[in-house]
Predict the structure of transketolase.
Amino acid sequence: MAAASASSSLSLLPAPSTTTAPPHTPTASPCRVSPQRHRLYAPAMEGAQGPPLGRGGGDAPEGGHVSGGEVDQHDKISVDRRSGEGEFRSPRYNPSNPYWFNRDRFVLSAGHGCMLQYALLHLAGYDSVKEEDLKSFRQWGSRTPGHPENFETPGVEVTTGPLGQGYCQCCWLAAVEKHLAARFNKPDNEIVDHYTLFLAGHWGLGKLIAFYDDNHISIDGDTEIAFTESVDTRFEGLGWHVIWVKNGNTGYDEIRAAIKEAKAVKDKPTLIKVTTTIGYGSPNKANSYSVHGSALGAKEVDATRKNLGWPHEPFHVPEDVKKHWSRHIPDGAALEAEWNAKFAEYEKKYKEEAAELKSIITGELPAGWIKHFRNLSQQCLNALAKVLPGLLGGSADLASSNMTLLKMFGDFQKGTPEERNVRFGVREHGMGAICNGIALHSLGLIPYCATFFVFTDYMRAAIRISALSEAGVIYVMTHDSIGLGEDGPTHQPIEHLASFRAMPNILMLRPADGNETAGAYKVAVVNRKRPSILALSRQKLPQLPGTSIAGVEKGGYAISDNSSGNKPDVILIGTGSELEIAAKAGDELRKEGKTVRVVSLVSWELFDDQSDAYKESVLPAAVTARVSIEAGSTFGWEKIVGSKGKVIGIDRFGASAPAGKIYKEFGITVEAVIEAAKAVWEFSREELEL
C-alpha cells in the first residue's frame, strides 16, 4: 500500500505560524472546517512539473529499503510539463503553517518511499525540509530519516514504517473528521467537512482514498511466491469502492480520472489500485526485486537519467518547476485566511460549540475537570467523558470485561458518526493504530482503547509507534496478572510489565485501588505526548489507607510509615494488587516492633522523573533492607531494591486455578513478604555491626 489519504480538516485559533512548533501542535489558525469535499491527498499527487529532487541511487545509503525507488516513484506520480492543471490538483495545505487544522492530510504508509515525500515538501515551500536535509537523507542530525517521523519533520502527519500502521492511522484521520463534522456542523454553517481496512468500509469513510502500488515485486522476488490474493475482490468484499489504473507509469489521464471518480463516491472508502513497473525508466533493473531493496548504483542512475530524458544535475530544480511550486505558499495562506473568517462567523452564532471545538483542536483542558477524578476506577472514563469533549474510544470486543463503555454515548457507526464509543472488534493491532491516528489529528482528541493486558502482544507495534510518535493514547489493559485465575497461562501476563517499562516514552502505570486508578487517569489525560498504559486487575481490590492521586503523579510514594528520620528498618514496595499484600505484611511486622515503610511504586517512569531529593525521601539510599512484590517478571526490580534487597515475583508462566491458589503456590503472599523482610533486615543489621 503506497499511500493513503483522507480529507481536509479543521484549523482553529489564530496562533503564530511556525514550522518549529512541536509536532501536531496547532499553530495559528481558527477552527478550520471547509464546506467543500476534500480528501487526504498526498502532496505527491499534486502534479509536480518534473521529477522530484534526488541524489541518484548510486549515492543512496546502504541498508534496508532505498526510499521506495526514487526513479520509480517520481516517474509514475509526478506530472510532466504538458499535463495542465488536472482534476486532482486540489490538496489544501499551507506550507507556512504545517499544523493548520483544516489541511488535507497525507499518510505515506509505505514509509520507505519517504524521499519522494521529502522532495515534494521541499518543493512546496515547507521550511522543515531544506536542500541540505535532502542531501543528508538518513544521516545523523537531518530532518529526513529513513521512514517518515511526524515529530521530526513538520509536514509529515504520522510516523510510519511498521507494516500497516500508516494505513490504519489514516483510517481514523478520516473518521475523526466525519465524527467532528457530525458534532459541530450546522445547516447554515458547515465548519467541518472531513471525515483499518475492515472498519473503513464498515464505517463508510467516504473521504478515505488509498493508493495501492501494484508492482508485483517484494524484497525476495515476485509477489507470486507468497501472494495470490485478488486485492480487488477482497476490498470490494470489505465494502470499498475499487478502481484499477492499469498504466501507472505514464497514464496521467487515467490517474486523474480515477481520483475524480473516487471523490464522487461519498458513502464508502476508495482503493485505487495502480499497476506500475518498479524501477520504471531503469534500462537494466526495471521490474526486478533488486530495485526494491538496493540502490541502482551510479552507472545505472546515469543510464536511467538518459532514458527518462532528465539532463539536470542532482538537486538542481529548473526555474519553471520552482515557479510552478512557488504558488503554494500564498495559495495556502489564502485558504487558511478564508477558513479563519468562516470560523469567526461560526463562533458568533454558536459560542458553546465553538469553545468545545477549540478545546479539541488546541488540547486545552476545560476548567474544573480535575474534580472528576474522585470516582472509583470503573467510573473514571464516564466521569471524564462528561467534561472532556475530545475523549472517545473503545475495546477490542471486551467492553463489558474491560468496563470501558461510555454509558451516556452511543456507538460510532456509519449512521451515527457523532457518537464516541468505538467498536473495534477483535482487532488489537488495528485498534492501537487507529488510536494513534485520533491522537495525532488534534491535541484535544484523547483516544483510549482496551483489551486484556496479555493481548498487548497483538498490538505492540502500534504501542511502540504511539511512544515514538509522541501520541497520547490511553491504553486501558485489564486482567493484568495471575489474578485472573482459571483462564490459565495463555491469558496471564508475566513479562508484560517489564517489557513496557523498557520501552522509551511510555508511562506504565499499575494502580492499586480507586484512588490510584483515578490518579492514573489524571496522569494519562495530562500527558498528551506520552502514551499511558494502565494495568488494571480483574479481581476487586479494597480501598487502601494512604493512597492518593497526588502520590500517583509522583510515580512512587509512601502509603504508610512508622519510622522517623527517614530511617525505617525495612521498606516494602508493591504495585497494583500486590500493594495490599505489602500493606498487610507491614502491619504484621510493626506488631513485632519493626519500623516499616510501605511504598506504592505505581509508575517507574514518573518516579524516575522526580528530583533526587524526592526519590531519596521515598527510597533512602542508606536503607538497603528492601523487598518488592509484584505478580509478574522480576526483571528490572534489582534497580529498585538493590543488590541487598529481595524481589518477590514470577519468572515462569502462570497456571490454571483459582487466583488465591495460584498466589499461594507462587509465593505471592503476606507470609513470604514477612520472611523476606526479616531476612534483608537481619542482613543489613549484621553489616552495620561489622
